[in-house]
Design a protein that fits this description.
Blueprint lengths: L1 H6 L6 H8 L8 E2 H9 L7 H13 L3 E5 L5 E5 L7 E5 L5 E4 L9 H6 L10 E4 L2 H4 L3
Parallel strand pairs: 4-6
Antiparallel strand pairs: 1-3, 2-3, 4-5
Length: 137
């Protein structure tokens, strides 16, 4: 991640390093506001605007990717080529779980070929209630 920043002409600031610490493979998917709260523990004067700018830079460099869980907030996670996955998303608490398989693998390739359609990218999220929230409904 640091090499991508350097090769993109960006400095490795302590604030950027702290933002990067929020993201790890299989980790929680944080909103910009959640990243801001975490980073403020070490850098109390960092602004939300600075966090947003850094998240956009990291996204442009392909280090993180934005996810839309349909709650009006973008969430962010590491964007590694071998980390393709999908999510189960709780409609009550917003927590997400990663699926360890890709549902596209279950779509018959003949179906796509018959429609003369070449898939470049896709997304697949399942919305429902986690075990903690299902009982509270």
């Amino acid at each position: 991640m640091l090499e991508k920043l350097k090769s993109g002409g960006y400095r490795i600031t302590p604030q950027r390093q702290e933002i990067l610490k929020c993201f790890r493979p299989g980790g929680k998917h944080y909103s910009a506001e959640e990243v801001h709260r975490k980073v403020r523990r070490r850098f109390p004067n960092i602004s939300l605007d600075t966090v947003y700018r850094n998240l956009n830079t990291l996204k442009e460099l392909g280090i993180i990717q934005a996810l839309n869980f349909e709650d009006g907030k973008s969430r962010y996670e590491l964007a590694w080529e071998d980390a393709h996955h999908h999510h189960l998303i709780c409609l009550k608490c917003g927590e997400s779980q990663e699926l360890d398989f890709c549902p596209l693998k279950f779509i018959d390739s003949d179906l796509l070929r018959d429609r003369d359609f070449k898939v470049e990218r896709h997304s697949f999220e399942i919305y429902g209630y986690c075990s903690g929230c299902a009982g509270k409904r």
